[in-house]
Specification:
Radius of gyration: 22 Å
Oligomer: single chain
Largest sheet: 7 strands, parallel
Number of domains: 2
Helix content: 40-55%
Strand content: 5-15%
Distance between the termini: 14 Å
Structural class: alpha/beta
Shape: globular
CATH architecture of the largest domain: 3-Layer(aba) Sandwich
CATH topology of the largest domain: Rossmann fold
């Protein structure tokens, strides 16, 4: 069969698709990956065929606009769907969430030209199956227009399903004349441009006909959707194993430190300052492998003697040698640490679903979280790092989650399942 993968031009979102795409390709199926032009080299470096669609993606202006528009609530800044409360959001907050996501995320990562180009590719190539990133709703649109089966492939916990299910329940309680759904309205306009119409309660355009989910089943929210379990197999892009990683570490234990692009931007990014982290690990009897951008490293000056600063190191190769990892809650980092059975200390950046990751992780006893960043200090960080490393319960919890993931079908194992579901769902 022919399988079209699509994601917006974020390498980490494409990385989440690589192993399933490769499994389908090595099983003999035709596979192409469609995204904005700047992702083409990243796609071909993974051994897959790239199809550029739409203009070059530039999210910076939209991200700034979203953040300023929701300055009083960063968690609604257009890039977050955090809902860690036990009770549902009130209607106004839920509506605000999907208004922000529709205006600042869905419409921006999938411009009209990107969607039009993807529909044209699908009409020409006639895929049997479209597999799409959860933020790239051009995928289900192209599938609907061409009659292909389609499925989401998650990059982490299914926060979209959790929030969308809650939103629909609130929407159904509203009087008919007050049922405002910005996401459905946008999808309706988009389909209409291609000669299609929304169906009643057309949630498969948001949640897929089914969902391929690499998160451990024990960490999922009960939303009642059809899932295909798949083992998370880390892919970090083109990389080389550094020589120092083959040597015996100079300290009894090793810790990985990576807080993404927001490391050190505490005023604007909402994460812990890099200087505080350096002070927290200074003098600990551990080697700290810290991923630091060159400009940040220069600003920090002299680093503690136990810190090894690197521009990049493949996490899947580094983490087996680590007793713990400190990070910001990014999905690739979070999932790779789960797959390698490494206890985690998360300093959540409050974007997208990082808060929910911390709740699931702590509930599983596999890590800790810095909950109140406004009162954060190097001493508090240091205490949490020592607790993570010295209490064997966290290593045991991480090992349990790794065992659960290892017992999940590998990407190659789910190919027959995808073949069967495609035959059942394509028009």
């Amino acid at each position: 069969m022919r399988v079209l993968f699509t994601t917006f031009a974020a390498p980490s979102h494409f990385y989440a698709q690589v192993t399933v795409a490769s499994a389908l390709r090595t099983a003999g199926h035709e596979v192409i990956v469609a995204s904005q032009p700047e992702l083409a080299d990243t796609i071909t470096a993974a051994g897959l065929t790239a199809v550029p669609v739409g203009p070059v993606l530039d999210l910076e202006p939209e991200t700034q606009q979203a953040t300023s528009s929701f300055a009083g609530d960063r968690n609604l800044g257009g890039l977050a769907m955090s809902n860690s409360r036990h009770d549902p959001y009130p209607w106004e907050r839920a509506l605000g969430m999907f208004s922000a996501m529709t205006a600042f995320v869905f419409q921006n990562v999938c411009s009209e030209q990107m969607i039009d180009d993807l529909v044209e590719v699908a009409r020409d190539w006639r895929p049997d199956l479209v597999i799409w990133d959860p933020l790239t709703l051009a995928g289900p649109v192209a599938a609907r227009v061409t009659g292909a089966a389609h499925a989401r492939l998650l990059f982490g916990p299914d926060q979209m399903a959790r929030n969308r299910t809650a939103f629909r329940a609130l929407l159904d309680e509203r009087p008919a004349e007050l049922r405002d759904d910005p996401l459905t309205e946008w999808l309706g306009w988009t389909l209409a441009r291609h000669g299609e119409r929304l169906r009643e309660r057309d949630e498969e355009l948001v949640l897929g006909q089914w969902t391929i989910d690499p998160t451990p089943p024990s960490m999922r929210a009960p939303v009642g959707l059809p899932y295909v379990n798949v083992r998370y197999v880390p892919y970090n892009g083109r990389s080389a194993l550094p020589g120092w990683l083959r040597e015996t570490p100079p300290y009894p234990r090793r810790v990985c430190l990576t807080l993404g692009i927001s490391l050190g931007e505490v005023e604007d990014g909402g994460t812990v300052a890099a200087g505080d982290l350096m002070a927290a690990v200074d003098g600990l009897d551990v080697e700290v492998v810290a991923a630091l951008a060159p400009e940040l490293r220069n600003r920090l000056g002299t680093l503690p003697g136990n810190v090894r600063a690197v521009d990049f190191v493949p996490l899947d190769a580094l983490l087996p040698s680590c007793a713990g990892i400190i990070h910001h809650g990014g999905s690739g980092t979070f999932m790779t640490a789960l797959a390698r059975g490494v206890p985690q200390l998360i300093v959540p950046d409050l974007m997208w679903d990082s808060k929910e990751k911390t709740l699931a992780l702590t509930a599983a006893g596999a890590g800790l979280v810095i909950e109140d960043q406004e009162k954060l200090s190097p001493d508090h960080l240091r205490e949490r790092i020592i607790t993570l490393l010295d209490d064997p319960a966290y290593a045991a919890g991480a090992a349990r989650l790794r065992a659960e993931m290892v017992a999940t079908p590998a990407p190659n194992d789910i190919v027959p399942v995808l073949e069967r579901l495609t035959a059942l769902n394509r028009a």
